[in-house]
Amino acid sequence: MQDLIRRRRHAGFVGRRDELAAYRDNFTLPPEDERHRFLFHVHGTAGVGKTSLVRRLEESAREHGALVAYVDEAVNSVPEAMAAISAQFAQQGHEFKALDRHLSTYRQRRHEAESATVVPDPGVQAPSTGSMIAAQAGLFALGSVPFVGGFAGTVQPTQLAQGADRLRSALSARLRNQDDVQLVMDPLQVLTPVLVHELADAASSVPWIALFFDTYERTGPLLDRWLRDLMTSDRYGSLPANVVVTLAGQGALDARVWADYLDVVEDMPLERFTEEEARRLLTGKGITDERVVEVVLRLSGRLPVLVSALAENQPTDPEAVGDPSGTAVERFLKWESDPVRRAAALAGALPRELNDDVFRVAVEAEGGELFDWLRELPFVRDRSGRAQYHDVVRTAMLRLQRAQSPRRWREAHTRLAGAFGRWCEEAGAGLDEETRRTSRTWSELRLEEAYHQLCASPRTALPVVLRELVDVCDTGGDQVPHWVRMIADAGEDSGAAEVAEWGALCTQALAEEATGATAIVTALLNGAEFDTEGRTTALLVRARDFREDGAYARALRDYEAALALTPDSARAFGGRGVSRKMTKDFEGALADLDRSLELEDYSGFLAQRGELHWICGRNEEAVADLDRAFAADPEEGWVLAMRGMAAAAAGRIQEGLADLDRAVEQWPEYLWIMVQRASTRIECHDYDGAAVDLDRAFELAPDSAWIASERGDALRLMERYEEADAELGRALALQPDYTSVLASRGVVRKNLDRLPEALEDLDRAIGLKPDYTWALVNRAQVRRATGDEAGATADLDRAVAVDESGRSLAQRGIDHVDHDRHAEAMADFDLAIAHDPSDKMAWAHRGNEQARRGRYAEAFADLDRAMEIDPLYHWALLKRARLAVARGRTDVAFADLTRCVELGHSPDFAQRRRAELLLILDRPEEALTVYSEAAPTGELASGWLQVAATAHRMTGRFDLAAEFARQMTEVDPVWGRFQQAMTSMRSEEPEQAAEHWHALEDCLRNPPPESAADPVEPGLAMAHFGLGRFEEGNAALAEAMAATGDDAPDWEDLSDFADALTELRTYSGMDPAQFDEPLRRVTEARDAILRA
Fold it and tell me: Is 956 exposed, middle or buried, given 0-12, 13-18 or 19+ CB atoms closer than 10 A?
């Protein structure tokens, strides 16, 4: 049927010969020819015949073997235009399978993002890998991604302005891989290169590709910049040279977009028919009576669509002319002799679009042949089985019907509204509200129902439609522009001034902002008369949009206004809680989320509260909330991952990793989860496992700057600085203004001692983000290292001044400690804890400073608090273990050192310290077991050699003890000699022992460089006692025990003294009584520490 219609119209086409010839001749010129045109622009007033000419140009393109696609106002975004092109090419035997897959993924991922309630926001100041717990990441409810369809056209970071980084981080958390994040954030940048590749493939097998974009006055705002970039830049790749594009619209091309390229556009302005052309068309229709011709020319004004309409019934009888007054449409109806057809033509104008079902309701009769006749009329466009009147004709027919019988007008639209309402019910049967709203079929039917309700009863329907528009804005997506256009159409078609005003207002709002929907809701709040429920919902929608844009103060005002209207709104409390969390008002956020969940047990806000507990270090509460949230919605992979992170933070590493493993297994391409598992593995010092995760992430997203940054940060934390520098450099090549990567590379280069380059990177990072506290703290360290003391102090002071979290106070306190400004350090640690009691770093470092001051009870209390906040905090764990050893709290020391081994925190050091502690406790066999299990293969460090030598000596394995002592002497001459001397005495070799004791004395009086800073008195005391010089030994021992500060002997030192003295007094040739007094003094001092 379509072919027959096209042929008939082709046969009757008249005029536009120059335009047809220009277009046809273009196919005879190769693309390399200077005369060849790639872009045609057809433009002219409504009804001038643009669409008819475009359809004829289509036929001409097909005749030249072109692959053809036609796009009109049915599309509401660039991805929809791509889908339309792909579908039409598939019908011609050229499937764009890759593009279709990407489009399907886009629609699915966009729906996931729009329907998301809460997602993690890993955007923090410091790089995220390995520091998630310390970073205080935040989650926020999406609800719907800021509106990006319709008049806004595309999602570009520049359009989303300062909210773009936040949105990208949120989507990174919500979606399963970084490609999907990029697809939702910037669909054109992802989809268009695929389209270009598909077009290139198709172009290699056809002579030409012809793309037509009709009704460009409507689609231009969506497509203009995209088409320009597609055709004139390399942004999306190289478009095949045998592509010819035609635009057809009412106005001139937008000079802001096309000004630099107008010289390559073939301009085709269309005017009304000349009298000769109009007469030729009438003659072709068999109309030759001059009186009839004159009437047609006058009524139509030679506008092609009206000339064609009036000629359709081929009036030849002069009597048919009758009264020459009236409009062209009235005369067209008068000249249609069949009253059924006449009525059908009028009734068919009432719906905005027709199919057979809609037509039957409109005409109250069977469709069939009557509908086929209607579709052949010259002013009716056929679109895949649907028919649509030309605007000029439909507007006139609607005006005529509305004027002739307002009652019949209302009845007809009421009948159509009822039919669409019934079809809505059928399409929505069994679907919940959210699913209905996202169902294209249901949404299209509801849209037309609302249109006919507005046309039938504008006064009563308008408040209902405006209220529903709030829900549409709440759902988001591409339905918003459809509803705005529907209201504008209903206002114009019904003649209802108030509806028309709202249509114009919403259209303007939609065009003004990239988010669009926010401006519409603002207009509704300012002008619509809502009841309490409607106004509350509108405030909540706008508040959510403000929150997503980072406008937290405005969001909070709207949430508070909503609560003033509806004090028991769970959504308002939950949304305000999320906003407060984003502003770091954690107590207020928790109170709001608690209240929200009391009112409604909603998994989204449960997950939010769980994340908030995690931020505040309440990891068990976090796990409990996230348990319930995941049970309610097992499809939320990030919730499972977050539960794993909270469990790990609570110290249940294996449980946490099991959750993360399950999440990765279930969502293997969900990059955010994979990165979080890598982060947790790094916390556990499982660097190999972290590397596997990040390498897999790289395979999935090789061009992702985010993944490159995560891999670079992981390498930095592994202290593989050269590799980290290279990977962070790759991230910057992909995204040169990636602030956190610049800062991270600056830290890497600082550790590589490439200070000028480090300073350059940190300067750039701070230049991009002046209040970037992590960068400021690290630049202070670089400046200090280069001698810029004033600059370093200024950076730290600036970090403290701008850091609302108070974390920089602890960093400045650490700097004070490093420069022996201990009073200032304590003041900063105290301030940091007062500002944020969950600041684990401040607690731990204050604990360390308390220990330095000899306030050991306070030191343990502070370190205990740091470990309560974060059981994985290895720095605090090691500090507490060392302090426990120094103070003789062996149970605490063993537990902490064992925990370090389990977590992979400095495992070699922790195992060696466990072995040393076992030796002090006279458990040498257990120490040897630890040594055999944990000592590294190959060349051993001094500490492990001392463990082995001591343990073998204590168990009577003197040959082994002597060998390890000999090896130790090579790496630590001082204490190696001590081990050799003790082994020789134990094996009753007094001459060798004396030789080693003398060598020890020489080493202590002339220490090697690596031992120059160590105190000599403890070693001299042992040498004197070993040589039987008790007076000198007692003097050296007294001096050693009287030392203060860092040289003051602790419980471990005194225990070592006691063990050595006890062992020496048993050797042959020694007078045991000479050891009683020094041993008493040592043991009393050691035991006094235990009692303190």
Answer: exposed
Query: DSSP assignment of 575-623, as one string?
Result: HHHHHHHHTT-HHHHHHHHHHHHHH---HHHHHHHHHHHHHTT-HHHHH
Q: Flag whether the pTM goes above 0.85.
A: no
- What is the CATH number that goes with domain 893-1091? 1.25.40.10
Decide if 214 contacts 736 (C-beta within 8 A).
no
Helix (H, G, I), strand (E, B) or coil at 1000: helix
The domain limits of the chain are: 2-94+205-269, 275-337, 893-1091
In 870-972, alpha helices (H): 874-886, 890-903, 907-920, 924-934, 942-954, 958-971
Q: Rounded to 5 degrees, what are φ and ψ at 32?
A: -75, -20
Q: How far is CA 1078 from the centre of its chain?
A: 67
Q: Which helix (H) or strand (E) holds 734?
A: helix 721-734
The two tokens of residue 283 are: 């003659």
Per-residue model confidence as pLDDT tens digits over 115-170: 443 333 333 333 333 333 222 222 222 222 222 222 222 222 222 233 344 444 45
Better pLDDT: 918 or 52: 918
**b/e per residue 657-679 (b: at least 16 CB within 10 A):** bebbebbbeebebbbbbbbbbbb
pLDDT tens per residue across span 629-663: 999 888 888 899 899 999 988 888 889 999 999 99
CA-based nearest residue to 464, from 444, 447, 450: 450
- For domain 2-94+205-269, the CATH superfamily is P-loop containing nucleotide triphosphate hydrolases (3.40.50.300)
Residue type present at position 52: S
Q: What tokens appear for 424 in the block?
A: 């809505």
Sequence-ordered alpha helix ranges (H) in 476-585: 479-494, 497-512, 517-527, 532-548, 552-565, 570-582
Q: Bigger pLDDT: 316 or 87?
A: 87
